[in-house]
Amino acid sequence: MTGPAVGAGAEGGRPIRVLLADDHHLVRTGFRVILEVEDDIEVVGEAADGDRAVALTRATRPDVVLMDVEMPGMDGLEATRQITGTAGAGPGPAVLILTTFNREDYLFAALRAGAGGFLLKNGTPEELVEAVRVLARGDGLLAPELTRTVITAFARSVGPAGAGRTGADARAALAALTPREHEVLVLVARGASNAEVAGTLGLGEATVKTHVSRVLTKLGLRDRVQAVIFAYEHGVVQPGG
């Protein structure tokens, strides 16, 4: 693999800062080797448990944290809650959950904890690198084999209020969307990529990215994963639709 052109990093061309959290030393070493050959990625620390991951996140301020789920002491899900700020610690970096276990309960818990991405460890090095870049850009990511099926299951498992937003708040936020932004939200909720949205609506990808960014801002959401959850929880799209 070769790194992208200069300027593809997190801010102003600087490398994407990544923290590795996994209780297996060999796994962390493998991730480090994969990531550090890329010109735009820098590994800034390693943690073998959730407590250490939280402490190192506060000390090193990474852009992305690669987080295992099952670790001694504080597990990866609680560490994710603390890192992303959903446990009252304030805003944090994007968290990419990496696990060997293809379990829906882990995915649901990770999304509720504020994770921006979820990948299985049987993926390729290229998929890992791309996932880091996607989260560093502020987008969300799910393993392709999980996206549509599991999001639908997740939507059925939660109540209609969802994500701490009242129905009135959600309706007001949705009413602020333009018709085009609403179309983009629907397509994103159905698992469409920016390229697929562009093809469906006859737009350029840059225009789609602008629409997605405006949707997230108006709805008060962090990334595309939260947009999908919001859309299902508040009836913008229906499971199986």
UniProtKB/TrEMBL annotation:
Keywords: DNA-binding, Phosphoprotein, Transcription, Transcription regulation. It comes from the Bacteria. GO terms for biological process: phosphorelay signal transduction system; regulation of DNA-templated transcription. The modification 4-aspartylphosphate is found at D68. Residues 170-235 form the HTH luxR-type domain. InterPro entries: CheY-like_superfamily, NreC/VraR/RcsB-like_REC, Sig_transdc_resp-reg_C-effctor, Sig_transdc_resp-reg_receiver, Tscrpt_reg_LuxR_C, WalR-like. GO terms for molecular function: DNA binding. It holds the Pfam family Response_reg. Residues 17-136 form the Response regulatory domain. PROSITE patterns: HTH_LUXR_1, HTH_LUXR_2, RESPONSE_REGULATORY. This is Two component transcriptional regulator, LuxR family. The lineage of its organism: Bacteria, Bacillati, Actinomycetota, Actinomycetes, Micromonosporales.
